[in-house]
Give the backbone structure.
Amino acid sequence: MKNNFCVRKLLAVSMSLAMLASMSACGSAGKTTEGNATINNEEVPASASDSSKTDDKKYTVGICQLVQHQALDAATKGFKDALTEEFGDKVVFEEQNASGDSAQCTTICTGFASENVDLILANATPALQAAASSTKDIPILGTSITEYGVALSIKDFNGTVGGNISGTSDLAPLTKQAQMVQELVPDAKNVGILYCSAEANSEYQTKVVKKELEDAGLNVSVYTFSDSNDVASVTKSACDSNDVIYIPTDNTAASCTEAINNVATTAKVPIVTGEENMCKGCGIATLSIDYYELGVTTGKMAAKILNGEDISKMPIEYYENPVKKYNKKLCDLYGIKIPDGYEEIKD
């Protein structure tokens, strides 16, 4: 009896010790040491153990484009292609077009802000202005913006907006564009500059080109239209009084090139434009950037931001190598001989 009692007591003690050892082993499986974890008895850095969460991260990017025309469309496409290359299907685009209505830009961007998207692309100046007013927290990248200091009313702009805004500029050398007017139409005495009064960056370009042409001894008159409804009538007024027309990178004009061209060709007044796609529709020549590549640059900036880079320290980026291009069909119509150094625009 006594021996049996002792045996049972020893067995009970052994079982208790085994249970304590098992509980201790289970408790140590999730133990962290200096930020690390043990998985399957191997110590793994905490960042690696959380990698599945990072890998599953999806991003929503809101795109507000002012109006549909080839230059802005190309910039949006380049932006999306660059981000898709970086993130694949982990980036989702909410793309909306304001159809040339600045008020609609505000509605679109306010919607993006309420949805708390991860980033906003503002394509064209009114879109950027609307985005800037809608949020001070969500990162905003502009593209197809000529001059950020003008667009955002920043005095003494130094190249970096700061805060939650950065982006790319489509500004081509305006001095060289003014020189092209004189180079291609050397007998011109009177130059008309045509743009939409609602576009602050068009006004900025106009001031620079006007001064350059006046310094060269030409008479310069400025003609503005408020929207697409009065483009044709204002173009006619400009053609009636001038030997050549200059149109800066203006979104409303770019969406109305057919109407502008119909008036100009009837009046036989050549037009020099601020960008290539506008030149295809109504111009004889341009010094233009590549809007698709501008969009790609903007998309690469977006990838850096979504990967954690500080947008407030990102300077505005520019297209470095604008190209002189000409529209052969319209040059032939006006009898304009193109000098060396120009590239023909292909359809």
